[in-house]
Write a structure and sequence with these properties.
- It is built from four helices and seven strands.
- The protein is α+β, with helices and mostly antiparallel strands.
- It has a seven-stranded mixed β-sheet, with helices on both faces.
Length: 151
């Protein structure tokens, strides 16, 4: 398992998180809507949520972000982004496995949304036991996936 740590995000992490979003998701966003810095900044600022956001670190370096929401019906992974320099090293899978293990201990399912153009992430989530529930958004651009909790 890849060693990583999570720390609470602070407002000082805002610029890192926006730059990370652009680096990790920019191509996917551009494929659907086109990347516009001003529009993406506005969207990012509206969604900035310190209470549910953690910074992923490896060897004391910030490499990603995890945003979780504990909803009545499930644990919702609102965001997991890993910097491209660290993708493919197992960090994202390890984070999602940790979320799953915690949810399983609590008897809760885990849900998330993934962009339909992000086939790499979809494959990872399927490998981790997530199943497509439905598609939504303009032109069904998002896929809601769910991993049931323990029986």
């Amino acid at each position: 398992m890849t060693d990583f740590a999570l720390r609470p995000a602070t407002d000082a992490d805002r610029e890192f998180c926006f730059a990370l979003h652009k680096a990790s998701m920019g191509d996917y966003v551009a494929a659907i809507w086109g990347w516009d810095d001003a529009v993406q900044r506005e969207f990012f600022d509206r969604a900035w949520d310190l209470a549910n956001t953690q910074i992923v670190t490896v060897a004391d370096r910030d490499v990603g972000i995890l945003k979780l929401e504990r909803r009545p019906e499930a644990v919702y992974i609102a965001l997991v982004e890993i910097h491209p320099d660290h993708q493919g090293s197992g960090i994202g899978s390890a984070i999602v496995r940790q979320v799953i293990a915690d949810a399983d201990r609590r008897g809760r399912p885990v849900e998330l949304d993934v962009l339909n153009v992000n086939t790499r992430a979809q494959a990872l989530y399927r490998q981790l036991g997530f199943v497509e529930q439905y598609r939504h958004g303009d032109g069904d651009i998002k896929i809601r996936m769910r991993r049931a909790g323990p029986p």
